[in-house]
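User: Last request for today: this protein with NAP, please.
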Amino acid sequence: MGIFDFIKGNTKIAAVIGDPIEHSISPQLHNTLSWQLGINMAYIPLRVDKAYLGKALETFKALGFIGINVTVPHKQHVIEYLDEVTEDAKLAGAVNTIEFRDGKLTGYNTDISGFVRMFKSEAGTGFRERDVVILGAGGAARGVCIGIIRDGAKRISIANRTLSRAEQLAEELNNLKKGSASACLLNSREMKKAIQHADIIINTTSVGMYPHTECNPLDEDIVFRENQIVCDLIYNPFETCLLKSARLSGCLTINGLGMLIYQGVHSFEIWNKVEVPETVVKNVLASFKNYFKIKEIQ
Ligand code: NAP
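Assistant: Here's the final one, the structure of the complex with NAP:
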């Protein structure tokens, strides 16, 4: 009989907290990274009720955890328990990664860095001087927009079902970079015009996500140009209705799995003070793509 010696007395412990947490693939991702890179870290999922958030963080600190990922619904509330928060996380108003070091809790937002790194890797280009349409104005849209502005986008048009949320986000972005953002209603004439001129279209709404896989955030009469890049933050299903119609129009399409992998990789790098080689990230992403395709067929 073999000995399972992955977890030992000196193994560093990290975790993801959320409520619910069963759906998270972060444990598979981080334990795969540790295994591939020969790093002595184990990563577990923990369901934490909002009422115990502060106590849970104190406990992780007392137990010597090196870090945690934070997912829905704690990304905003967790900020009040932290000693420091990075500029990106402050702007996004959300923390998805906490580092425990020298008794101090520091909050990061690796969704922002993860999204931009993923996009550059999968699209082979960044956002400099690009015209971008964002569908949605929720938490994910805010992070994506901050990353895009930082990377030098020329213009961002935010189209949302609730106009006031799009206007609020556009105002915040214009405070970061004057004249960079505008707001309109989802599927309005203004949005359709913006899509015609856009280089990149990114869906950050939850429309089309499992189990409502037949839904598309865009009206049927919207046609893409073949030189546009269309990205959907959803990865279940692997190809949403939106991505399918964009692919059939000849566009380069990108789903949300890469963002999930790259944000996790950045958390892993923060905790372990390592740089994960791009070849390793690409191999891990390819394995997860297969894993999801197989799960979808079943
Ligand atoms: P959120 O803050 O709740 O925002 C949801 C957005 O979707 C809002 O803009 C909302 O519009 C819009 N929306 C919801 N139902 C709609 C409908 N029936 N018609 C039109 N618009 C609708 O959620 P979030 O955290 O931003 O997450 C949004 C999506 O991104 C989810 O699918 C999530 O899984 C995905 N995500 C993926 C990653 C990744 O790593 N790949 C990371 C984060 C998020 P209103 O403002 O009008 O309500």
